[in-house]
Design goal:
single chain, 241 residues, alpha/beta, Rossmann fold, OB fold (Dihydrolipoamide Acetyltransferase, E2P), 2 domains, five-stranded parallel sheet, five-stranded antiparallel sheet, 8 helices, 32% strand
Length: 241
């Protein structure tokens, strides 16, 4: 698995930085490589989300769901985000906890009480364990306001199409959705997918055999190879071991 991508959303810069330091320490203790990004402005967060970069690149979101960030959890799930989300809030209101439940928050931690740091450390450790075990076995693709859940193991390849769309070909059919092949490459490069051509991103496990210039997939289709030939050959050989 590649680096775990962790986003912290909190308008309080001091607190957000403290959380990041704690999370970094826990990741180091567990030998987990992680990338961190802080947002203290919900507008910046929403702008990234609208461009689908965050949906593609965030594994864990730690968020204070108040003020400008209040609508973000619901919007994030609406965009098809299927990663782990943890609420960090000073509010003890039942409505806030219910909002966490409605948006499928992994946990709700109340800031500032005597047990906060201990609880935050325990919860984040469990989050890391679960994120490693689940390992993003499914991908959610979005088109026309609808989300489609597809098992990664069922996917043969992604193909770039016209109009800022991508076609996913998988066991049982195909699905066209709004994205770019580069975004999908960033999203799935640590899940066994390799870019072999300007127009094709393939799953290594779905390859039947390889020649110098083309691949034959397990669904019988042949695809051209113009990129990453050595990396691809190495990945196929490692799979065979």
């Amino acid at each position: 698995m590649g680096k775990l991508r962790i986003v912290i959303c909190d308008e309080n810069i001091k607190e957000a930085t403290e959380y990041e330091e704690i999370c970094r320490r826990i990741c180091e203790e567990k030998g987990i490589s992680a990338l961190f990004k802080q947002y203290v402005n919900a507008d910046d967060f929403m702008a990234d989300m609208s461009e689908k970069r965050l949906v593609a690149l965030a594994d864990i979101v730690l968020i204070e769901p108040k003020d400008s960030f209040a609508p973000v959890p619901e919007a994030l799930r609406g965009k098809g985000y299927d990663g782990i989300m943890v609420f960090l809030s000073r509010s003890t209101a039942f409505e806030q906890a219910l909002y966490g439940y409605d948006t499928k928050a992994y946990n709700y931690i109340v800031k500032g009480d005597d047990e906060f740091l201990t609880r935050f450390t325990d919860v984040f450790s469990k989050v890391l364990n679960d994120s490693q075990r689940l390992n993003r076995q499914y991908v959610i693709l979005q088109c026309g306001g609808k989300n489609k859940l597809i098992a990664l193991n069922d996917i043969y390849y992604f193909e770039s199409a016209a109009g800022h769309t991508v076609i996913c070909r998988y066991k049982g059919g195909e699905y066209k959705f709004i994205s770019s092949l580069s975004a999908m490459e960033n999203r799935l490069s640590d899940q066994g997918f390799i870019r072999i051509h300007q127009s094709f991103l393939v799953q290594v496990e779905a390859i039947d055999w390889m020649t110098k210039k083309k691949l034959t997939m397990k669904n019988g289709e042949t695809l051209p190879i113009t990129r990453n030939k050595d990396t691809l050959r190495s990945a196929i050989n490692s799979r065979a071991l």
